[in-house]
Amino acid sequence: NDISTASSGWNNGKWPLREAWHVSVGEGASSPLIVGGQLFTMGWQNNRDQVVCLDAKSGKPAWRQDYASPKYGRRATGDEGIYSGPSSTPEFDGESGYLFTLGIDGDLNCWNTRAQGKAVWSQNLYEKFDVPQRPKVGRSGLRDYGYTSSPLVQGKWLIVEVGAKQGNLIAFDKLTDERVWSSQSTSPAGHNAGPTPITVENTPCVAVHNHDGLLVVRLDQGQEGKTVATYPWITTFANNIASVSVHGDSVLLTSAYNQNKIERLKITLKGAEKVWQREEASKVCTPVIHEGRVYWAWQQLVCLDFETGKVQWKGGRCGDPGSCIVTSDSRLIVWAGGGDLTLVETAGRSPDRYTELAAQKGIGKSDAWPHVVLADKRLYCKDRSGQIVCLEISP
C-alpha cells in the first residue's frame, strides 16, 4: 500500500542522504524487493533474464540465476523505445523462502532463496495457455508489452494475471506450480502491477485492473475465482498502467488516456458502485491512500481528498515515471522523471499547498520506472537501465 513504518530521516531541516553503493543489474523496470537484509530484483542482459540477489547493506552479490529470454515478449508491439527487459517485481513467500518471478516473455519461475536461488519449478505462460496478443483498442495503435504484472502469494497459492481463455487470473500451487483454480473472467491481461488483495463483506478477494477494466474475484473456499464485481475501463493502446488502489471496501481506478479521470468505487458482493469521479488522473503511478488523502506522482505530485475527490494541492515536476512512499513521520518520498528524488510534506503537515523539503536530482541515468524502496534506513533507487543506487539515511 506504499505506506512505510520507517521514517524519512528528515532532521533539523536536513535530509542527510549518503550514497552507500551502486550497481547495475541489467535493463528493465523490475523494482527492488528487500527481505531480511537481502535485495532481490531482475534485469536483462546478453539475451538472458537475470534474477539477482544482493546484500542490501553492501550491494555485494549473494547469488544470481539466469535463463534465455528475448528483450521483449513474443507478442510485443509498440513503444520499444521506452521499455525493455522484465517489468514484473519478484514476489517473496516467507513460509517457504521461495521467490517467484515473471519475465516479459511469460517465464514464470520459482527459486529457493535458502539454497542460493536454486530453481524449484518453471513454466512459460504463452506456451502453456496459448495466450494471444492483446486486442487492438479503437483507432489507437496496437500495444502489447508482454507480461508486466507481479505474481501475488495468498496462502498456498500463487495468483497470476495470465489473461488466457482459461482465465484472466489463475492460481497455482506455490510449491508445485499445479493449477488450482481459474477466474470466471477470461479478459486479456492488463498492463499493470498485478492483483491486489481486498476484503469485501468479510470475504477475502483480489482485485485487478485488466484489459477490460476492474475485476474483483472471491478467494474463499468453494468460491475461488468467482466474479464479485466488474467495472468497464478500457484505455486506448490497452495502456492502463496505474494499478488498483485498495482502502477498506473501496478501490480507486485511474488512467490518463481516453479515460482521463479517477474514480472511487465501493465494492460489495453484489458489484461495484461509483462513489465519485474527478477529471484528475495518474497515467503511471498507482495512487497512495493515507489518512484521508490520495497521492500520486505523474507530471506533478497531486493530493486529493479521499472522501470527496476534491483536489487539495498540486506541485513539483515529476514527468511520466513516478512512485511515492508515505513514511512513518508523514512525509512523501518521490522517485520520478529521469532519476530525481524528492521529499515532500503530506497534507497532514501541509494541508493547503505543496511543500517540498529537499531534492536530489540526477541520481538515475534513465527513466525511473521501477518503484523506490525504503528499508532499514536506506533508500533503493533503480532506473530502467538497471542501475541501483543505495542511499543511506545518516543519523
What would your notes on this structure say?
By secondary structure, the chain is mainly beta. The chain is 1% helix and 49% strand. It has 1 helix and 31 strands. The protein is globular and about 55 Å long. The relative contact order is 0.14.
List keywords for this structure.
395 residues; mainly beta; four-stranded antiparallel sheet; 1 helix; 1% helix; 49% strand; globular
DSSP summary: helix tally: 1
Distance N to C terminus: 26 Å
Helix content: under 10%
- Uncertain runs are none
| Secondary structural class | mainly beta
Trace the largest sheet across and list its strands: 1-31-30-29
DSSP summary, beta strand count: 31
- Indicate the radius of gyration in whole angstroms: 20 Å
Overall, the morphology is globular
Profile the largest sheet.
4 strands, antiparallel
Beta fraction of the residues? Answer: over 45%
The overall pLDDT, averaged over residues, is 97
